[in-house]
Amino acid sequence: MSLLVLGGTGTLGRQIVRKALDEGFQVKCLVRNFRKAVFLKEWGAQLVYGDLKLPETIPMTLIGITAIIDASTARPSDLYNAKEIDLYGKYILIEAAKKANIKKYIFFSILNASKYSEIPLMSLKLKIENTLINSDLDYTIFSLAGFFQGLINQYALPVLDKQSIWITGDTTAIAYMDTQDVAKCTVKSLSISDITRTNLPLVGNSSWTSLQIIKLCEKLSGQRSKISRVPVYLLRFARRFTQLFQWAWNISDRLAFTEIIAGGDKFDASMDDIYNVLQLNKNDIMTLELYMQEYFSKIMKKLKELNYKVKDNTEEIKF
Ligand SMILES: NC(=O)c1ccc[n+]([C@@H]2O[C@H](COP(=O)([O-])OP(=O)(O)OC[C@H]3O[C@@H](n4cnc5c(N)ncnc54)[C@H](OP(=O)(O)O)[C@@H]3O)[C@@H](O)[C@H]2O)c1
Q1: CB 122 within 8 A of CB 113
Q2: Which ranges of the chain have pLDDT less than 50?
Q3: What ligand 1 atom has the least distance to the C-alpha of 36?
Q4: Pairing relation of β-strands 2-6 and 67-70?
Q5: By C-alpha distance, which of 112, 285, 281, 113 is closest to 204?
Q6: What are phi and psi of 236, to 5 degrees?
């Protein structure tokens, strides 16, 4: 089976490329910057130029492809409106997939998107979900809650660096998952014929609030965190204000997500059926405790080595 992966340079996409290559798939990556994607080529993937903002570049990338895994999404730094990438670009991709007779189409959505359709990114995800449902493609939609990897910048580094961590309320618990596990399940699903035209949640084994994650980072690093609380009404005001300007819609979207984190919902789902279908065991899935433990022990070791060197140098200078 030959795969076309979109978003191969991203947090999740790169893990999918790695896993698919390890499993013996032929992998082609649609990328918009070859230099940035050179590591994918070194791993053994083929690179092909494409940009979801440039519809004419999409159909050619599908030549010789049996399955598409779309892990792309607009970067927060992208000045363009997310709609161009996460809606119009994907409409074109789905149309091209139909014409190219693609056998499997995998798309990543966001858990609970239908509850928050007033948030632009959620509504774009829902529109693509519906387009797939109304197509005759054999699709799998995986609805994700969040990644362990994002928690490093959000919590682990600020705790280590004694920077302020901004939180709103602390009631929403999210079942974050390691992107390596998302990739493992995604690639495995390609070989399971029971998984067809369906939407499945893909989440970690336990859900975490911001404060619980901060406490875990404090425990593992031995550092105390600096927590700053932002009132939700302030976020709401900032969101409404940024919504007035098209160039600020991405910021507005992100503020809306922060509001969700304060909203007390649960971003969690049972994975028992999916593990059964995928023939995976719950214990094969990484826990946040272990992931953070490995991260902090690596970083603490590096910091110790650095101190040693500084000490050695100082002693050398003294002599
Ligand atoms: N992160 C989360 O917590 C989370 C939660 C729920 C669902 N998801 C979904 O999971 C998927 C992967 O997310 P992620 O966090 O791994 O994404 P990411 O790290 O932000 O990566 C985005 C990827 O999309 C590519 N891309 C952006 N604009 C493009 C364009 N115009 N044409 C072609 N490719 C383009 C980027 O390429 P460049 O490197 O060239 O920018 C990059 O490879 C997305 O569908 C996302 O919505 C993520």
Answers
A1: yes
A2: 310-319
A3: 39
A4: parallel
A5: 285
A6: -60, -40
Residue-level pLDDT at 126: 98
| Rounded distance between C-alpha atoms, residue 280 and residue 263, angstroms | 33
pTM, two decimals, is: 0.92
What pLDDT, on a 0 to 100 scale, did the predictor assign at position 240? 60
Is residue 217 within 8 A of residue 291, CB to CB? The reply is no
Contact criterion met (CB below 8 Å) for 32 and 68: no
The residues facing 69 across adjacent strands are 5, 106
The closest alpha carbon to 123, from 274, 249, 266, 263, belongs to 249
Let me know: does 147 contact 179? Beta carbons within 8 Å: yes
* pLDDT given for residue 303 in this prediction: 82
pLDDT computed for residue 167 by the predictor: 82
Centroid of chain to Cα 120: 17
Residue 86 contacts residue 128 (beta carbons within 8 Å): yes
Distance in angstroms (rounded) separating the CA atoms of residues 26 and 163? 44
Query: Rounded to an integer, what is the distance from CA 163 to the centroid of its chain?
Result: 24
Ligand 1 pocket, Cβ-based, cut-off 6 angstroms: 6-13, 32-33, 36, 51-53, 71-75, 85, 108, 110, 144, 146-147, 150
Q: What is the pLDDT of residue 17?
A: 98
> What end-to-end distance do the CA atoms of the chain give, in Å?
64
Burial of 108 (0-12, 13-18, 19+ CB in 10 A): buried
Q: Cα separation of 32 and 48, whole Å?
A: 8
Q: How far apart are CA 261 and CA 224, in angstroms?
A: 22
CA of 268 relative to ligand 1 center, distance in Å: 21
- The pair phi, psi for residue 230, each rounded to 5°, is -105, 125
How many angstroms separate the CA atoms of 280 and 302, rounded?
34
pLDDT of residue 304: 81
Closest CA to 58 of 100, 27, 106: 100
> Ligand 1: which residue has its CA nearest to atom 40?
32
